[in-house]
Design a protein that fits this description.
Layout lengths: L16 H7 L2 H18 L12 H5 L6 H4 L9 H19 L6 H22 L5 H15 L4 E4 L3 E4 L3 H11 L5 H27 L11 H7 L12
Antiparallel strand pairs: 1-2
Helix pairs in contact: 2-5, 5-7, 6-9, 6-10, 7-9
Main location: endoplasmic reticulum
Subcellular location: Endoplasmic reticulum membrane
Keywords: Endoplasmic reticulum, Membrane, Transmembrane, Transmembrane helix
């Protein structure tokens, strides 16, 4: 799928992986690196996928809390499918961090935390064991809604605008006989975030609600991400 841009050649200079890697924004780079290392650890049999998947009983009754994180880091064994997932993860995570969330690292982390939290609540009811693909789908959905005029194409067959990308991918999954649960979770949670972050503040301003922004990161998160600014107090003489 042509997902918003082709990967061009590097002329005769070759591909500089480290330059490409270090150009990825910090949060996207951290997520990509964690996902890649998790898969590498499984391929080398250092860790087992059975110790990574989401399991409500193991997490909340046996104290295996790390599964709340690792369920978002494992994308399957090294394969073409894994590379496909990594492409979408890096591309749309990066596009969001460099686009809507440029200079707003705390807000981007808040975006990921919100998605992870809601998906974790949903997971016990839909029997989904690995949620990384759902989180990636959420990124695709939000990016598409925020770039409504961007033209895209599917295998060069037909064109569409960015908001339809997750639905095209969902349809493609159905045609391949895959379960749509993971994709649907990403779309639903992505729509929830889009409404709370971009639609609700407008409604709140028009109707005079006391709470104008629900998704504003707490001060602690701003401080951890290096984006905290002391409030400015204006004094009148």
């Amino acid at each position: 799928m042509d997902a918003g841009g082709a990967v061009g050649g590097a002329g005769g200079a070759g591909f500089d992986f480290m330059s490409w890697y270090m150009d990825i924004p910090v949060v996207s780079r951290l997520y990509f690196t964690s996902a890649f290392l998790t898969t590498a650890g499984c391929a080398l049999e250092i860790i087992s996928p059975f110790s990574l998947y989401f399991n409500f009983d193991l997490i909340f009754f046996q104290g295996q809390a790390w599964r709340l994180l690792t369920t978002y880091l494992f994308f399957g064994a090294f394969s073409v499918d894994f590379l496909f997932h990594m492409y979408f993860l890096v591309r749309y995570c990066r596009l969001l961090e460099e686009g809507d969330f440029r200079g707003r690292t705390a807000n981007f982390v808040m975006f990921l935390l919100f998605g992870s939290f809601v998906m974790t609540l949903v997971a016990p009811f839909v029997s989904v064991h690995f949620l990384g693909s759902s989180l990636t789908f959420m990124m695709v959905y939000v990016w598409g809604r925020r770039n409504e005029d961007t033209r895209m194409s599917f295998l060069g067959v037909f064109s569409f605008t960015a908001p339809y990308l997750p639905w095209v991918m969902l349809t493609f999954s159905v045609l391949l006989g895959h379960s749509v649960t993971i994709d649907a979770i990403g779309i639903v949670v992505g729509h929830m975030y889009y409404f709370l972050e971009y639609v609700y503040p407008v409604i709140a301003e028009i109707r005079g609600f006391r709470v104008k922004r629900i998704m504003e990161p707490p001060r602690l998160l701003h401080w951890l991400c290096g984006t905290y600014q002391e409030p400015v107090h204006l004094h009148q003489d």
